[in-house]
Design brief:
Blueprint lengths: L9 H8 L6 E3 L2 E7 L3 H18 L4 E5 L2 E6 L9 H17 L3
Antiparallel strand pairs: 1-2, 2-4, 3-4
Helix pairs in contact: 2-3
The structure holds the ligand C[C@H](O)[C@H](O)[C@H]1CNC2=NC(N)=NC(=O)C2=N1.
The site of the ligand C[C@H](O)[C@H](O)[C@H]1CNC2=NC(N)=NC(=O)C2=N1 has 8 residues, from loops.
């Protein structure tokens, strides 16, 4: 298994979570919900997330509920959370800083 996609321990996960306050550990996955102002804005945000996911070759589960986007990330082959999940989560949080509604 590649180092970046190796399963992290609970302690390693907790340490990394401290640095990305908009993500939580939920049912063994990293999860975050982003609130937009409108449905089209939610779709626009998801499209930008999709581009980031493709560049990382790591893809979140995506749920859209009107103006809210919930993202969940885990590493299937590792059966848990890996560094790749945190890399993707951090990049999405950076994207959010740019695209969040004022
Ligand atoms: C070969 C390819 O890298 C894998 O199938 C990737 C694709 N995207 C993925 N995305 C996520 N979230 N978890 C994975 O385990 C995963 N696996």
């Amino acid at each position: 298994m590649q180092t970046q996609s190796a399963r992290l321990s609970d302690e390693e996960i907790q340490v990394r979570l401290l640095a990305i306050s908009d993500w939580q550990l939920e049912r063994g996955e990293l999860q975050s919900t982003f609130s937009l102002a409108t449905f089209p804005q939610a779709i626009f945000f998801v499209d930008a997330v999709a581009h980031v996911a493709e560049t990382e070759q790591h893809h979140p589960d995506i749920s859209i509920s009107y103006d809210k986007v919930t993202l969940r990330v885990a590493t299937h082959a590792a059966g848990g959370i890996s560094e790749k999940d945190f890399t993707l989560a951090r990049r999405i949080s950076q994207l959010w800083q740019v695209l969040r509604p004022l």
